[in-house]
Amino acid sequence: MRKSLLVLLLWAPFAMALLPPPGQRLDQPTQQAIQRFLLHNRILDSVLDLDNAPYIVAADAGRVLGANGERVHARGDLDPTQPTYGIFRRGRIYTDPQTQEFLGINADDIGTARFVMAGDLTTLAVQRVTQEVRPGDRLLRSPSPVELASLETPTAAPLIEGQIIDIPKGVTQIGVLDAVTLNKGRRDGLVEGQLLRVIKTGATVRDTLTGAPVKLPDERAGTLLVFRTYEKLSYGLVLSASRPLAVMDRFETAHQRQ
């Protein structure tokens, strides 16, 4: 814990250089971190978006598992003009921490496959795998890219408050250039390029003299950049952190409309 905090404190002055002034474009390291993340992470607004997608039936020669370089056979509406499909599996269901409303579903990245031949069963060649491909894994088109070169931070924004609800890469503590999942999206007014302040809720301690519980003040702990929005969820990138961040930390828009 002490070591990770020391790393964050030493990195903080350099991380501040990543913060884009309002109306300015992102620098190259930030763009690269976003591009790497988007290659392997996807949120779907509805479970049906995944359940109705084309699916893998079997691997070549009747094998039930596919690996890198093998051919797999799939059923569903696959477009021959779409050269590459992502292979995904149902992952975590996201719900709002306060209202328990369904917000979306995480599609776990399995790999990618290249279209080879159409037919009753479409043949694809596996190009990249993170784990073994299974029958029932779904095939999704590549999402529309984020235009990072022209992604600009708005000069003003309404007050939007929410929480970090997940760390897609599965770690427990969040540092600079890590991506996080937020429980607010397009319907709430979040836009790609929006800057957010992260706020850690003050702990409740006991007054040693009176015995009464006392809540310590909330503290600003970092800055996020919203780089991909969905209907009810968003992805944010940590641009600065003065202390370790964690799931359930709060956030609010960094620029309020005057």
Automatic annotation (TrEMBL):
Superkingdom assignment: Bacteria
InterPro entries (UniProt xref): Bact_Kbp (IPR052196)
Alphabetized UniProt keyword annotations: Signal
Keyword Signal: yes
Signal peptide: 1-17
PANTHER family: PHAGE-LIKE ELEMENT PBSX PROTEIN XKDP (PTHR34700:SF4), POTASSIUM BINDING PROTEIN KBP (PTHR34700)
Full protein name: Peptidoglycan-binding protein
Protein source organism: Pseudomonas fildesensis
